[in-house]
Amino acid sequence: MKVLFLEVDTEREWAVASLGPAFVAAFLRRHGHESLFLRVPLTMNADHVADRIRSLEPGLLGVSLTTRQWQRARKLIREVRQRVDVPVVTGGLHPTFAPQEVLANPGFDYVCLGEGEEAALELVDALESGRPIAGMRNIWARGEARPPLRPPFPSLDDLPFMARDLLDEPNGVVHMSTQRGCPFPCTYCGARKFHDLYEGFGQYGRRRSLQNVLDELAQIRARREPHYVIFLDDTFTINHPWVKEFCRAYGKDIGLPFWIHARVETVNERMLHQLAEAGCRHVTYGVESGSYRIRKEVMRRPVKNDRFRDVFRWTREAGITATANYMLGLPEETRDDLQQTLDLAEELEAFDFAYFVFYPYPGTHLFNYCLDKGYLPADYLDREANHRESILSLPTLTQSDITEYYEKFTKLRERMYEDRARQHLGADTPVEVLRAATAHVQAAAITG
Q: For the whole prediction, is pTM greater than 0.70?
């Protein structure tokens, strides 16, 4: 059977498509099925998508969705199905943790709960042969009871490498995944919920062998000329012995500059120097809040601010670019907590930072907390998850409070960019020129 995977863009065209379909597509190809890819940019409407579907003639459409993609995807799929009669299966974080809401929307026939490789193959085989779908593990069909789960795929090394043509990777950038699962109990993140989903099946967290990761990179380099590797693991630095051996082997056998995501609790000064020697140019750290109270009591991240100060300093001293992520508008947060976050963002002197207004993702602990507290509006399922304004009614913060601090973060970021550009171009450079130069300064610092 021919399966067409749609990547639904929101706000802008992303540099990399969803990883899940790239794994599933490779698994389907291994078993004799055809997998195709269609990115759906904001400029492509339902008529254009339907025309492409007709020309490609797939037997099944696959869509991987986050909550941010959900609002556009639900409208798009409804309109597309009015034009072409092709069944649709959807998976990913949002369908896994809000499956009933997804199946209640016209156009979606099946939801894949959890991991999708074996489940997708079973679904495709059944559709092709005409076998019944009911009772299939992981696949929830519209109108049927919730299905049982199959165990997680036992060894990630036994999966085929991702289908790179589904990742839509530009400019010599390569995206890699070395593990599944996250052991940390953060209340705002969906990654931990997969451990809860698979409770009773043993350890959900798994990591590929180092040799398997190196083999994939070697295969990529044999087919094209990569320039930069981005490891998309939630926390690359969990297993210290694995990371130490990775640094030795990667630096020797691959040597490409790379970017990772880490937590300050999982790195030390020596490890950062080892990563730098192996080619690490960039680390993104989740700081989230500058308030220890919010991190400990609301987010379940009891790490002290001094640890952030140390790690950001160590990262700079190792010659690695550090960026940070922050959240605003969390439950039980006050203006004083927001000010602490702003103060810490300025103090850490990260090369860059991202800042998001908190949105409670279905399935997470904080989603259920907000629901129980009455912080969510009645129409929350119809609200966009745009991370620029809050959908919550919080007793400790007003919407104007959140907007005020969002603007303060924006101004801090602009000032950082202008200061950096001024260092390169001179103190008397006009502001307009400084802002125009910011993107070039940022790119030069990232690629080193």
A: yes
